[in-house]
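Record pair follows.
FIRST:
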Amino acid sequence: MGDVNTAQAHYQPQGKVNPIGAQYGHVLVSEDMFLAMAGGRKPLLATSHANKTGLSQPPPEAGDWSTWARSVKVDLPAARAYAQAVYAATDAILGGMSDQDLERPFDLSFVGMGMQNVAAALNLTILNDFSHTGEISAIKGLQGAVGYKE
């Protein structure tokens, strides 16, 4: 994401693919929310980064987010600052977790997975990041940019 510009972030590919900016925003908000719940704290978007996520509007909590994805505007510098804060909070939360914390119940009903544990929620967060990173890379490629960098 470091080399993505505003035009690339808002480029709307053909078909059902969502823009890079929306993919990025979704990943950041999801990680912030899931890690906040797992770590027993409020998400950054509701505290230190309230109205400073770089997103013109937050993504829907669950369900189809394609309408949001096609209308959201992303302020990349603000989103990148939010991303750095999310990553630091993630590191702090994960660094402070014990094996017992990973086994705590975690309600994933809002994504159709019912009651799980914190470890399952963290795994879902990783898989979400993984899949959207691939989509971002592909959309960059559609625009003639380098997707993954070594």
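SECOND:
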Amino acid sequence: MRVLIVEDYEPIRTGVAEGLREAGFAVDVAADGTTGQWYALNNPYDVIVLDLMLPGVDGLTILKRVRARRCPANVLILTAKDLPDDRVRGLELGADDYLVKPFVFGELVARVRALVRRKYEAKDPVIRVADLEIDTNSRSVRRGRRAVNVSPREYALLEFLGMRAGQLVTRTAVWEHVYEFHSDAESNVVDVFVARLRRKLEVDGMPRLIHTRWGQGYILAAEEECQERSAPDCWFIPPPRRPWSCSRRGWR
């Protein structure tokens, strides 16, 4: 899942970014409000961690503009402003959560994960698809009684598919939610990781769970629930090189 951190204090910005990456998130960072606003309005983030007192554009202005343009990211305000009136104003302007500095990093990670689940309407931290279990807290995967050893990147892809289980997920969507803005990933990286996941999930002839829909994308679902016939990864549509923009009518 993809997170934006807008924070001008370098030690906090660097520490939070490194910690969230270790927790499995793709993370973009901005050191001022002007840059942070551009990132927020031009990329489809799952969560934005937003300071309020920023050079350039202040955090509340960014929040108001994000909500005015109906961008779907959940926003966590992370600030030293701890008065009740500050909390009330931030939440009433559209923030989804509010955390005061100094903070415990484990709590921040838990809140970010909760906001990701809220965005995808997944209340249970364990995603279940047929006999597959994806534990978003421990970042572990099981199929039936067998633990599945996956790399951090494989897990990130599987978790994103799991959050949208039963739905068509395009390569573009994967590219935008699993990789960072300056990622140097190769254009066929999605195909490579889907193939690796299939090999790990389909041992001993187990039924396929990641289904390919020709020319469109992937669906994570039980075989009997997938209406379209799955196909090998022999096609490719490259991801767009320009960032998506957030208009007044929503993402386009």
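COMMENT: The chain has two domains: 2-119, 126-225.
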